[in-house]
Every structure is written in structure tokens, then in C-alpha cells.
Amino acid sequence: MTKKDFLLAGVGGQGVLTASDIVAEVGMALGLDAKKSEVHGFSQRGGVVESHVRWGQHVGAPLGERGHIDYVLAFELMESTRWVDYLKPGGTIIVNRQKILPMSATVGNAVYPSDEEIEKALHAVTDKIVYVDGLEIAKSLGNKNLANTVLLGALAHELDVDPEIWLDVLVRRVPKKYIEENKKAFWIGKLREKAPVNS
Amino acid sequence: MKKLLSGNEAIALGTWLAGVRYASAYPGTPSTEILENLAKHQDIRAEWAPNEKVALDSAAGACYAGARALASMKHVGLNVASESLFYLAYTGVNGGLVIISADDPGAWSSQNEQDNRNYARFAKVPCIEPADSQECIDYMAIAYDLSEQFDTPVIFRTTTRISHSKSVVNVEDGNGRVEHPIKGFTPDPTKYAMIPAHSRRRHPVVEERTKKLSEWANTASINRIEWGNKKIGFVTASVAYQYAREVFEGYSFLKLGMSWPLPEKLIREFASQVEKLVIVEELDPFFENEIKAMGIPCVGKEYFPMVNEFSLAVVRDGARKLGVPQPEPVVVPAVTMTPPARPPALCPGCPHRSTFYALRKLRLRVAGDIGCYSIGVLPPFNAMDTIGCMGASLGVAQGIDAVGVNNEKTPWVAVIGDSTFFHAGMPALANIIYNKGASTVLILDNDITGMTGQQENPGTGTTLQGLQTKKIDIEAVVRGMGVDDVFVVPSFDEHAVEKTIKQAIAIKDRPSVVISRGPCVFLPDYPQKFTYDVNEKCNGCSMCFRVGCPAIFKGEIDTTTKQPKALIDPLLCVGCDICAQVCPHNAISKVNN
């Protein structure tokens, strides 16, 4: 693993920042330098959230560059189209199918794009599109907050990193009573399963 | 051990390590987390002040008493505290004093992009600038030593990108704090009491100090030359250094850790050995103008913009204009659609919603203020006409009223939050009362400082470090100041809010105050009720869309009205009841669960 740039994006309140912390800490656990940068403030109130994570031997700039990002992780369906062109040629976008309607559609004339429009917009940039039913899987596990862990699992699937490293970081970040369900959610994402594993 | 820390976490750690005893701040993005992290240390007294000036005066007192002290604020907070900064520049310190100025290039959550390095030069105090989290820790120790060695307050300037980026630091866990015993106060009015006779004597001391600091800066480890290709030498600081280092790999750098006063000898030495001198700095041409004034040829702002924060792309643009080869720009395929904008909104359950719904309905003109409720300027409310700075609403309302523009035809109100009222609203209310104004002031009291993430304030009843304290009663304050017509109304009763505002604006010959009271949705005592659902009575009348709630969506089209019916997301709804109150068809009801 030499150098990787990630962009995690979604809507205020979705937990994008905690997820980016975890990605940055995984980089650190790999013995790499890592930086994470995000935007606070107004965006906390339901606006767009953008968070960059960079891994490398030495990381200077805290923000990656449009056209150079290895992985975009979109926590909300429509938001994927806002950030997909940050990908480098051949980069992968992981998309949570969850929809959160923007205020511009509720009180204005904006229309939430159709699945086909979104698909088309993503394909214009990359063929490496991974959809994840993060919220549905999380709900089936009994806790909607697990969606982010499913998405991190889906990202882990793309990377050549020992899953134990991911789980170590995850366990440190999660309150004790939620550890087991988080592990489950991670593995569902990692193994690209649609529903909880029946044991 | 290695840790991933944000700039703000690192500053808090550096402050603790430097043996600081007292810290005071008013919350403000991107500075807020510094005091929140410091407050976890029991060997530091950490306080929220009502405003930045009080924070700096209190830190001044602690430092006069011989303790190391910190005052922390966002860039515009230093405007509020600037009068204190200027007297402190003359009095100097006893214990070390550091003032955090967290600037916001890009204005991510501020009303402007001011560059507070200018304050350092203006007030004649040194300014330290870290470029990552490790430097936030290391430079803090240097800042306190410098403060005590040169008898001066020190500005420690970060930017949003430094404060809120996380990077790897090497720290000893839980120890390494250097204790600095409180020295006690030594009376010396010629130093600490700035009457004209004393201040005239202090001024030459200040000028002499700047010269000495400039000498110190020439050899200080925090100003360092990194030699490389000498065709171009770059002078840079803060996060601009990180971008420049990546874009101009292999060239020579003078990285400044202290941006005022400048190390003139070091700059001359560096400039003399490179063919071209280029300044890479965010916002103002601060270094550039100073270096040009030294008579040293250099370029900067013709290549790198004066507005907005930098990024790799921005610095690469400048590099191409400079003729420094860059990798071919990646051809980014055009996305076939632009997704709808996602503007911020009042949270589901926000106690401010009823007020803005009513203000919109009553078509009032609104002098607004700084806080979550600034969102009232956006659709669907469009219910704020002016927003300037903390506390501006009441002064603006007084001026509008004084020239007769607050009248029957266009009634105005001022809208301010509880924390902002304590910050700078109280003197402005005194002004309205004293000068026989007749403004109506709405105080939105949600019990906390909301926008920055629920920090306690004088009306909350608890301190930053969790102690129970006097909860200052805004109603009693307002009555005590002399407002006779004070109305207190529960925020979660829209009809009452609307009726009360009407009642207050009908008073035309004297000031009136409406306190709309209801807790922030993030507080533990928020009256969590039910979730709500839309029933078959909905005909798509769209009234509930006007409350601007992120939990309410447009659903299927009603066959009669041809308008979209409402839908409520049960995951987002917290049961504040406002949409149900404004629905004329009883189509929104509680879900039995």
C-alpha cells in the first residue's frame, strides 16, 4: 500500500466524519502517514458534508484533488453525483442507496433525480460503481446507525488490508455494547452480502 | 505514541503541556473544540465567557496574576476582543498569555474572510502559525516561552484547515505537563494601568520589543529554510506550506512558523540565494507587501488568489502560470447532471421553527443575528433582512426605528438568540430603552449555544466544566433593564408565538420583548414526544411544507388539488408538533407506538 486518497461525502448528521476518522486510523495502523480534513459549521444542519482522507509515506496537503481520488464513498444516493468527478480515471465509487430529500426539493422546485439519471451520471465517469443498501441492511440488523459500518465494510472489500486491522480500529471507536453488531455489519459490507448472515 | 489529532485537539494538548492554568473562550467555528478539549483537564480552569472581549480580559487577569493563560476565539471574535488586545500589547504580561485566532479562509461558517495576521502587525504583537497538528503542540510551548521572555501577548493563528484537519502526532500519553507555579501579582501601575502618562512610556518599549522579536525570529527554529532547487525559493506558512510543498516538490522553501514580526535577515539570506522569490500565502498579501517594503523583489498574488481558501488545484494553477511544470491536468469526464442544492435547514424539532413560520406569515421585516436561526434567511422562511455580526440585530433595529422606517406599513423586529443576547445584545437593548426606542425584540431562548454544537452559556445553568451555577433569567434581565412589555411564550406552540408577536408589534410607543422559549433538540431535556404521520385528510395544500422541516417530504399528487401530498420520515421526525399545528385539515397526527 503506498498512497491512497479517499473522499467521503453525505449529509450532515449521517456520521460521515466518524467514518472518515476510522479510514484515517486504518491508514495509521498500516504504518502510513495519514491526514483527514472536513468541513464543519453550517453543513451540520442538514447540508452537504465533505471529508477527505489521505494515506501515504508522507502526506502534505490535507485535501485531495478533483480527478485524483482513488475511492469516493457516498453515504447518500444523489450525493454520489456531486462528488463522482473527484475520482481518478479507473477509480471506484461506493454508493449507499439511501435517499435523503434536500430542502430544495421539499420547499422549492428541485426534483430528486431518478435512479436512471444517477446511474447515467456515475457511468459517465467510471464503470466501477458499487451500490450498497446500507440503511436496509442496518435496519435488518436492528440499528439504523450501522449503515456506515456496512459502507466501511464495502470499502474494505476494495482494499488489500487485513480485515483484522479494520476491526481493531472499529472496536476502539464503538461503545462496548455495540461492538458485536458493528462487526456483523462490517462483514456484511466486506463480503458484499445483501442481508444479515444466518447463523 | 502515535495519535491522530485534529489541530484543535493538538492545541488543547499543547496548552495543557505548557502548564496553562486558566483558559477562557466564546465558542465559534473553527475554534470551539479547543476549550472543549481543555475542559477535560482538571488542572486547568476552563470557562465559556459571554463574549470574546470578556474572555481576553479574564485571561489578561489570570496572566497579570502570574498564571499562564489562554484566550481562544474565531477570527471575527478577535474584532470583539481587539480593544483588549491593544491594551495588552502595551501592558505586556506576567504569566504567559496566548490568544488563539482561528481564521476561516473560504468563510465556511463565518461572515467574512478577514486575515488576522494584520492584527499582529497592527497591535505590535508576535503571531505564531502552525502548519499541522504536531506543530500545534510544539509551537504552543514556544509561544508561551516567547510571551514570558519578551513580555508580550502572543497571537496563535490557525485556519479552518489547520483546526479541523487531523494528522499524526507523536505524544507521551497523559504526562509531560510542565508546571508553572502561579507567580502572584506585583503591583506596578506604570506597567498595568494605562493612563496616558503610562501608555506614552510603554509605547517605546513596544517598538523596541518588536525589533528584538524580529532579531529572535532570524534564528528561531520555527522559521526554517529547506534547501532544494534554487531556481525558485518559496516563502510560505500555515496550510499554504503543505500545498506548496506538494506542488513545488524539490524546490527551496522558507517556511515561516512566526508570521509577525518577520525575520528580515533570514529572508534576505534566502532571497539572495534563489533566482526568483515567490510568496505562497492564503488571503492577504501580508508577507508579500512586507518583503517588498524591505526592497526585496518578489511575486505572489498575481499567481495565487486573495480570496477563498487554497487547495492543490489552486496552487497548481499558480504553478502553471509561473511556468513550473505540473502533471497534465486529469481530464475529468463531465457529469451528466447537477444534483439539486442541499442548503442547511433548521433541524427537525428545532424550537426556532415556529418563530420563523410566524415571521414569514406576518410578513415582518427582520433585523437578524448570528446563530442557527440565521437559517431563517433561507427558503421557505425568507424571514431575515439583515445579518451582520454578533448582537447587531438590536442596534440595526434601533436605527431603522429612529428614522421612522419601523412603522405600521412595514413593522420591523429584531431577532436574537439567548447566547448572542448575552454576548452583545444587552448593551444594544440598553440603548433602545435609554434612547426611547420602540423596537420589538424577539429573543429565541433555546437554553444553549446551538450553532457551534451546544455549548453552555450564562442562561444554561451549568458551566463548561460541568458545575451547577446560577441560571441567569433573561426575563428578569430584560425587565430589570426597564422593558415593561415582556412576553414569554412556549416555542412549541405556533399559535401562541404568532399571537404574541402580533401583540408585541402593536405596541408602538415603547420597546417590547418576546422571549420564545424551548430547548434545542439536542439537549437531554428536549420533550421527546411521538412521531407523526400524514393521514388520508391530506389534500396537498402545502401549508406544512412552509415550516421548512427536513422530515417532511413531497409525496404522491392529490387527485383533486393536483398538488403533492405530504409525507413524514419517521426516522427524522421527533414529534415537535409544529406541522400538525399549521395543518388546516387535521391531516397530521401522532403515531401510536
State the gist of this model.
The complex is a heterodimer of chains A (199) and B (593). Chain A has 199 residues and is α/β, with parallel strands linked by helices.
Terminal CA distance of chain B reads 49 Å
Biggest interface reads: A-B, 60 and 57 residues
- Domains of chain B, number: 4
Gross morphology of chain A? globular
Q: Estimate the mean pLDDT confidence of chain B.
A: 96
Share of residues in helices of chain B: 25-40%
Supply the CATH architecture of the largest domain in chain B.
Answer: 3-Layer(aba) Sandwich
Radius of gyration of chain A: 16 Å
Structure overview:
The complex is a heterodimer of chains A (199) and B (593). With 199 residues, chain A is an alpha/beta fold. Chain A is 37% helix and 22% strand. Chain A contains 8 helices and 6 strands; from the N terminus they run E-H-E-E-E-H-E-H-H-E-H-H-H-H. A 6-stranded mixed beta sheet of chain A has the order 2-3-1-4-5-6. In chain A, helix 2 (79-83) links the parallel strand 4 and strand 5. The longest helix of chain A has 14 residues, at 16-29. Chain B has 20 helices and 22 strands. Chain B has a 7-stranded mixed beta sheet. Chain B has a 5-stranded parallel beta sheet with strand order 14-15-16-18-17, sandwiched between helices. In chain B, helix 3 runs parallel beside helix 5. With 593 residues, chain B is α/β, with parallel strands linked by helices.
Task: Indicate the topology.
The complex is a heterodimer of chains A (199) and B (593).
Chain A: E1 4-11, H1 16-29, E2 33-38, E3 48-56, E4 69-74, H2 79-83, E5 87-96, H3 103-106, H4 115-123, E6 129-132, H5 134-140, H6 147-158, H7 163-173, H8 179-190
Parallel strand pairs in A: 1-4, 4-5, 5-6
Antiparallel strand pairs in A: 1-3, 2-3
Helix pairs in contact in A: 1-7, 5-6, 6-8
Chain B: E1 2-6, H1 7-17, E2 22-25, H2 33-38, E3 45-48, H3 52-64, E4 69-74, H4 75-80, H5 82-91, E5 97-103, H6 117-123, E6 127-128, H7 133-150, E7 154-159, H8 160-163, E8 166-170, H9 189-192, H10 196-219, E9 223-226, E10 229-237, H11 238-247, E11 251-256, E12 258-260, H12 264-273, E13 276-280, H13 286-293, H14 312-322, H15 353-361, E14 365-367, H16 392-402, E15 412-417, H17 418-434, E16 440-445, H18 474-481, E17 485-490, H19 494-505, E18 512-517, E19 532-534, E20 552-557, E21 564-568, H20 578-582, E22 588-590
Helix pairs in contact in B: 1-7, 3-5, 10-12, 11-14, 15-19, 16-17
